Amino acid sequence: MASTYSMASTSFGANSRFDRQLSRILNHATAIFCEKGYEGASIRDLSRASGLSLAGLYYYFQSKDELLYLIQKHLFTSVMERLKENLKTAADPEKRLRIFISNHLAYFLARPKAMKVLSHEDDVLKGALGAEIRTLKRQYYHCCADLVEELKLTKKLKFKSRAVVLCLFGMMNWIHTWYNPRVDGDAATVAREIGNVFLRGIYASTSGR
Q1: Are residues 20 and 123 both part of a single domain?
Q2: 3-state DSSP call for residue 207?
Q3: In a 3-state reduction of DSSP, which class is residue 20?
Q4: What is the pLDDT of residues 26-36, one digit of tens each?
Q5: Where are the alpha helices (DSSP H) in 37-63?
Q6: Cα 14 from Cα 8, distance rounded (Å)
Q7: With CB atoms counted within 10 Å of each terminal CB, which end of the chain scores lower, N or C?
Q8: In 3D, which of 79, 74, 71 has the Cα closest to residue 143?
Q9: pLDDT tens digits for 67-121?
Q10: Same domain, yes or no, for 59 and 83?
Q11: Could you tell me the pTM of the whole model?
């Protein structure tokens, strides 16, 4: 059996035969967790969807918990890597915060099933696997919090940063429950609208309106 705990950086798009097969398994697992929920899904469901035997599946991972861990780790790592690259193009604090919003929505609206799994299975993992995912989530939170704080200091704004950051995540993370591209437009359009609402709100808080 392969030790997938050592594969913390495994990407859904990796090039080796092993990683390509694991990527395929994780995509199937994401779809099943999205449809049935983590508790309702079984490895037999994954076996039927992937066409692999139970023994074949357990060559790539050790437990259902580890499947969810690998999915979550890949998503948080990838979205943060993309953010880091995208932020290189901007210095203005407002533009940088808009880049965070745009990056988040573009990444997750392209992966609605994964977004639903992250939102609904937020606190399932325990022990070492859960601790590692919580660390990644804190890192991602602080990516946003640092950008908000940068804007706050530059514009001399007054608000409680933690509440503001969590409100922004609340606006973005449940978009999968209502988003319809035919009605709401593409990810860039939605990101612009959310950015406008969010920024007008924090700017108005300082003016007293």
Answers
A1: no
A2: helix
A3: helix
A4: 999 999 999 99
A5: 43-50, 54-58
A6: 12
A7: C
A8: 79
A9: 999 999 999 999 999 999 999 999 999 999 999 999 999 999 999 999 999 988 8
A10: no
A11: 0.86
